[in-house]
Design goal:
This protein is of the alpha/beta class and 393 residues long. Helix content is 56%, strand content 6%. A five-stranded parallel sheet has the order 2-1-3-4-5, with helices on both faces. The chain is rod-shaped, with a radius of gyration of 47 Å.
């Protein structure tokens, strides 16, 4: 790093430019001070001289000085002690010892007490001395630049910390807002679904609560299978909507108190397809549509399943679970043409058709729950809070 020493300055008048380096020569011999001033007349520096330590300290108090070169043998205060005072009061100032005495103890004292940059002996070589001063000033300005960069880095780090803290607060606030909006949307989402469900069940008082219970049973089975919360929520909502297509089935068929004729049964078998068509335009129900469409497919691909005759893994997994839940609810509930069946009959039916009508995994999960809870399963599942249910996991 250069100091720009090639620029000429007028040494006869005080310099006001704070960027011009100030150097101070301290010696009790006036002729030496004059010789040093002449030596640096052509250098772009402001030269100060003092013939005693006290005068030098006063100059350092008043002026901008970057380098001090001091003789060792001086009246009042020796150069080593003077440079030690400079180090203590102005540690950034470069310190050089200029002496005609080269005793080892003087050099050691100058290094230890004054922490000098260089020891120069009299008589000096002019070019070497100028080079020494240039190098010393380079060191001074390099250190000052490093200090400036370090301080700037510290300031920037503090500003970054403040900015990060501010951003963290804003992120937390935005996250809270998003969560609140998400909760509102979810509540509206579920309310919309329940409204769809009630529209279906309003057609038939005997099926009141059927869709809710299917959603509950399916959720319980999904949790038994260790499914994730997102899947459980999805299957609960699919359970609520699984019969939405019955809106498109004539009321006379829905409410018929007797068993359906083949023609009427064919009509009611259309409800999964109708339900899928109803839900398809609703973007937030997109992942529910296949669950609704295929909840009456048989696991073995039998033509008794509908509408598409899918089998095994071709059937969406939520649909396979819903089929078990739907069958259990339908068999245990009263219908116009029969009373609800006892649970042990339902269990035998699920066992009998596991692997044909029902996915064996979903059937086994239901049977495991019944083995633990028996009739309590139907009671516990009659009313349901999906948020509370998920928080129990």
């Amino acid at each position: 790093m250069g100091t720009g020493l090639e620029v000429l300055i007028d040494m006869t008048s005080p310099l006001k430019d704070e960027t011009t380096p100030g150097i101070l020569f301290v010696d009790d011999e006036v002729q030496i001070l004059k010789a040093l001033s002449r030596l640096f007349r052509q250098e772009p520096v402001q030269v100060y001289t003092a013939n005693s330590a006290s005068e030098a300290l006063a100059l350092l108090d008043r002026e901008s000085i970057q380098l001090v070169m001091s003789d060792q043998r001086m009246p009042e205060i020796p150069g080593v002690d003077f440079l030690q005072s400079v180090r203590e009061r102005w540690p950034e100032v470069i310190r050089i010892m200029l002496t005609g005495y080269t005793e080892m103890n003087v050099a050691v004292q100058a290094i230890n007490q004054g922490e000098i940059h260089r020891l120069v002996t009299k008589p000096w070589n002019d070019e070497e001395l100028r080079a020494t001063v240039r190098q010393a000033l380079d060191t001074y300005f390099m250190r000052r630049e490093l200090d400036r960069l370090n301080n700037l880095t510290k300031q920037q780090n503090r500003e970054l910390e403040d900015l990060n803290h501010t951003l963290e607060i804003k992120v937390e606030e935005r996250t809270q807002e998003v969560e609140e909006k998400r909760a509102e949307l979810k509540e509206a989402y579920v309310s919309t679904i329940r409204a769809f469900t009630e529209a279906v069940e309003a057609k038939d008082p005997y099926t009141r609560g059927h869709s809710e219970r299917v959603g509950v049973y399916a959720s319980r089975i999904a949790r038994e299978l260790s499914c994730g919360n997102e899947f459980i929520e999805r299957i609960y909502l699919a359970g609520l909507l699984h019969d939405i297509g019955k809106i498109g089935v004539p009321d006379a068929i829905i409410t018929k108190p007797d068993r359906l004729t083949p023609e009427e049964y064919a009509e009611i078998k259309r409800h999964p397809e109708i339900g899928a068509r109803i839900l398809e335009p609703v973007s937030f129900l997109a992942d529910i549509v296949p669950c609704v469409r295929h909840h009456h497919e048989w696991y073995d691909g039998s033509d008794r399943g509908y509408p598409d005759g899918l089998s095994g893994s071709e059937i969406p997994f939520p649909s396979r679970i819903i089929l078990v839940a739907d069958t259990v609810e339908a068999m245990t509930s009263d219908r116009p043409y029969r009373k609800g069946l006892p649970l042990h009959i339902v269990v035998k039916e699920i066992q009998k058709y596991s692997g044909t009508q029902f996915d064996p995994e979903a059937a086994e999960a239901f049977l495991s729950i019944i083995e633990r809870e028996e009739e309590d399963f139907l009671e516990k599942a009659s009313k349901f809070n999906i948020e509370s249910f998920l928080s129990e996991r």
